[in-house]
């Protein structure tokens, strides 16, 4: 005789059914969201726009001086061109993008201080969203949809991507072009994925533009091109009918643009190669030991995703992609001058390996149904997985917010302040007694008034210190000598580390402190520059 189930068993069975239905509902909702590419791109776009508004700190001078400052000069007729533009080692292709943005703002009457400072990064956020989206698609093609979701989480969750990708550096756009081009490159994705039959031509065109914007991007595409030659069956067609004509077309178009802007024929990639590789001109701005990218630079960028990256490489066995990352790091290690941003284009590939590792962890460590219900853990996030996600977010989110909102924000805040004061006609001229290119310039001030900063152009003669180094080595001596022939500025801007030494000098020349902006808690490559101080003339 069958026994009727007791009340507790019936309740447990009902709970099992409801939990299973909840799990199916969650999975169905997730699958519906990721089944639409529009949803994925929309998520990336909204995230990066918010991201761009949260980036309020100073990172690298090139963000302003090699892109926005040049674009501002093109549109508004004033702005400083650094020595690189006089030597012809920069192409106008990248600044032209922001020149078009500025022109658009003028037409709409939106060239106000807020938009002039925010709009460029908001435009870059659109490019960044494209990078995120195509990294998702690249991961989907290589590993499948399950890994692609975790790749996207890794990309959006990495602190350095949050901190750097939305900046108007040429390296940021190079990263976007690199990821999109790799998606269309058959030797990585295979011929089975559903893209146009001309995908390799699209990849070549994007790679050519990446090299036009950053000639050093050729390091990436030499590896990819050689790999394609090794695996392709139509090598002759690839070289003669694709590489040569596409490369020549892009190079010719960029040379024509530079001819129009410079006023003479200039081959920027050749000049760039001569300065940075043949003459080691980049070493003028500092050098690091050969192992810096492996022991400090790249681990700091990858941060707590590093063990997941290593695990992902070992488990996925995608040696071609890992080879590209290793090739770039090794090649850049041969150069004396090293910076974080130089290797930014391969960081998304590292985060894709991290996504693979997380996807494997989710599937391999999922507990059984009873234990999951007992722990009240969602089906897709077992305890080990929950800890991994918590660990990554708890380490990367604070880092991203601190670096984007706090560390080295004073130099941007001071230009925002001066811009507003200048619009109210309370600023007549500005002298920056600080290391060269320590602040944004006319692209942020957006007011045509005299400004002066300390020059740091490389000298033709070795052993001669530039103005910036002279000042940093002897602030009082340099300022006293400079004051003999200066046209008295209405405002002087300097870091507190030098302001303490020059306080008496400034007071004796009828200056008084009017504002002080927090800058940093920790020193970077000089003495602690804790705040940016503004002095105003009382004469």
TrEMBL record:
Question: What's the protein's topology in the membrane?
Answer: Multi-pass membrane protein
Transmembrane stretches, start-end: 92-110, 122-147, 159-184, 204-224, 236-257, 293-314, 321-337, 385-405
What is the E.C. number? 2.4.1.-
Class of the enzyme per the UniProt entry, highest EC level: transferase
Q: Which InterPro entries match?
A: GPI_mannosylTrfase
Q: What are the protein's GO molecular function terms?
A: alpha-1,2-mannosyltransferase activity
Coiled-coil blocks: none
Q: Which GO terms describe its biological process?
A: GPI anchor biosynthetic process
Q: Which residue ranges are recorded for the region named Disordered?
A: 1-24
Going by the entry's taxonomy, the superkingdom of the source organism is recorded as: Eukaryota
What compartments host this protein? Endoplasmic reticulum membrane
**Protein name per Swiss-Prot or TrEMBL:** Mannosyltransferase
Q: Can you name the source organism?
A: Tripterygium wilfordii
